[in-house]
Amino acid sequence: MTQFTVHPAQITTPEMRASALTDPGFGATFSDHMALVDWTAELGWHGHRIVGYGPFELDPASAVLHYAQEAFEGLKAYAHSDGSIWRFRAEVNADRFQRSCRRLGLPELPVEDFLASIDQLVTLERDWVPTGQEQSLYLRPFMFARSPILAVKPSTQVTYAVIASPSGAYFGGTGVQPVDIWFTRDYTRAAPGGTGFAKCGGNYAASMVAQLEAEAAGCSQVGFLDAVEHRFVEELGGMNLFVVTADDRVITPALTDTILEGVTRSAILKLAAASGLTIEERRITLDELFDGIDTGRFTEVFACGTAAIITPVGMLKDADGGHVVGDGSPGGTTLRLRQQLTDIQYGRVEDVHGWTTRIV
């Protein structure tokens, strides 16, 4: 395994860390260290190290600041009841990270280096892994271009980093609370041939103005339609979408180059199939979705992602009005799949799928 040289930083006192872990929120508190690796066209990957968490020094002309040449990932480390710490499907994240970097013209980090950066950082920061209900250590690997040149071309200098953030529920609150989704008719997230399948900042930046539109309509998340016909449901600003039917089918938009292949999404498909549900990965129009909800053919809708796990949807809205899913409360299939997934992640049941790996 690739070894990272550790340069110990001044660490947070146990009292301050305990206070931060009591109610960490999501993505607002960070551990004491971060992992770093450099890349240049001349030397390749080098300088594998773990250093104190802190600001980067960037030239004002760095390519990432002007042309958004960057990619990132998101995964979690989970504390089990015996005190051990495990990661969930990190190999899948490593593969997706390579695909994203390839699309952005960035060098591909070896899977071995990706996994080593996660494992060695978490081992050092094990005291930052929270143990509260549905809490975890959220890990954010990312890569950015730093060549100081304004010419529009791939960077020859790159930094890879991993930061760690003790986190609770993405949407806050306690228990499993439904969220409302706003479907925008004015904005699209990604177009065919673009970067929609890659996990990169530009995709999320493109969703921000639509997210503001959603919030103005009283919704927590925004949903996007395809960029060609403006009819087919694709994904949310940061999550994949699922529908449960009255006859025990689970429908989710088929993957295209405009939809991110979610790690949680693929796990849910396997869990749903193992539970006897019929899986349909296909195109679904917004009109079909609304009609199915209104007629009762579609009984549940939920969103999923690493940060939000599985989140029930209580209502879908667009400019013409709202459509309440069932009675607006979390559905039974949604809750069962969520329980099955989190039971595996937190080690409450045997992982028969081989998805989890012990770090420490």
Structure characterization notes:
- 43% of the residues are buried.
- The protein folds into two domains: 163 residues, Aminotransferase class 4, branched-chain amino acid transferase, N-terminal domain (D-amino Acid Aminotransferase, Chain A, domain 1); 167 residues, D-amino Acid Aminotransferase, Chain A, domain 2.
- By secondary structure, it is an alpha+beta fold.
- Strands 1, 2, 3, 4, 5, 6, 7, 8 and 18 form a nine-stranded mixed beta sheet that branches.
- Helix content is 26%, strand content 29%.
- Belongs to the class-IV pyridoxal-phosphate-dependent aminotransferase family.
- InterPro entries: Aminotrans_IV, Aminotrans_IV_CS, Aminotransferase-like, B_amino_transII, BCAT-like_C, BCAT-like_N, BCAT_family.
- Its cofactor is pyridoxal 5'-phosphate.
- Keywords: Amino-acid biosynthesis, Aminotransferase, Branched-chain amino acid biosynthesis, Pyridoxal phosphate, Transferase.
Structural class: alpha+beta
The CATH topology assignment of the largest domain is: D-amino Acid Aminotransferase, Chain A, domain 2
Mean pLDDT: 96
Order of helices and strands: EHEEHEEEHHEEEHEEEEHEHEEEHE
How many H/I helical runs?
8
Provide the CATH top-level class of the largest domain.
Answer: Alpha Beta
Q: Quick one: CATH superfamily of the largest domain?
A: D-amino Acid Aminotransferase, subunit A, domain 2
Which regions contain 5 or more consecutive residues with pLDDT less than 50?
none
Global geometry: globular
Number of self-contained structural domains: 2
Give the N-terminus to C-terminus distance in angstroms: 15 Å
Share of residues in helices: 25-40%
Report the CATH architecture of the largest domain: Alpha-Beta Barrel
